[in-house]
Structure formats: structure tokens, C-alpha cells
């Protein structure tokens, strides 16, 4: 293959030119593939980083409420979310700082229920992994690769 120098390195001049070209071409395509993967993960991660800000623009019918005088108690919002999705077990309730945002109730099975914090009206129900951002998260986590994705992460 090549002659070892005192440092233990193989001199490029001692490697056969055809072997060196094959190695460099293989290295180039591996680097291009890895670089493409990194760019893909970075772009989908950037979308996910702004999910809270972008999701109301993508699904305004679920995310818009009319601010009222006062908000309902959290216990009442939790009760109404359980009434909207009785088969689930409530995991957590997320309250957003903006007055025109609904209260998000997530259940253990990743079902989301949107409740108007002023009227208690049901705004919608969907799976956490559904919709545009569910697809982006699926792609970002490389779930389409299968069990191999765990080794990559």
C-alpha cells in the first residue's frame, strides 16, 4: 500500500494513484452525504425551535381565541378538556402568556385539546404528531430511517 514514515503516516506519493483517487472520491461522497444530513437536521430543528411562534400561523382556527374579562380557573379548564377527550388521561396543561392564545391540554397518549380560557369552549383536538410540525418533528428525529436512527442520534 505505502511506505510508513517515521511518524507512522502513509505518504501520498507512495500510495498508488488509482487507490488514492478511489479513497478521495469515497471520502468526498461520504462527506457530502453527512453534510447534507447535518443541513437537513439543522433546518428541521430551526423550524421546531420556532414551533410555538409558527403553529398559530399554520393553524389559526385552533390557535385563536377572543380575549375576555377574566380567565376560567385551571380546574375548570382541565375538567372541560377531559370532557372533550374522555378516553385519555390528562398529562399536563400549558398556559401561554399571550391573551389571544388557547390553553393547551396534552394527554398521556399525545392527544392535544385546545380550550378557550375565557369561555371554556372546545377549540379543537388533534394528535401531537399530526399536521405540519408533527411531520417536521418526525423527519428531524430521522424516524423514517427506523431503528438505525437511534444509532445516529
Commentary on this structure:
The structure is a single chain. Strands 1-2-3-4 form a four-stranded antiparallel β-sheet. 10% of the residues are buried. The chain has 153 residues and is an alpha+beta fold. It starts with 16 loop residues before the first helix and ends with a helix. It contains six helices and four strands.
Quick structural summary:
This protein is of the alpha+beta class. It is built from six helices and four strands; from the N terminus they run ααααββββαα.
The structure class reads: alpha+beta
Quickly count the helices: 6
Give the distance, in angstroms, between the N- and C-terminal Cα atoms.
35 Å
The neighbouring-strand order within the major sheet is: 1-2-3-4
Radius of gyration over C-alpha positions, nearest whole angstrom: 26 Å
User: Roughly what is the average pLDDT, rounded to an integer?
Assistant: 84
Q: Strand share of the residues?
A: 5-15%
Query: How helical, in percent, are the residues?
Result: 40-55%
What about the largest sheet?
A: 4 strands, antiparallel
Which residues sit in consecutive blocks of at least 5 with pLDDT less than 50?
A: none
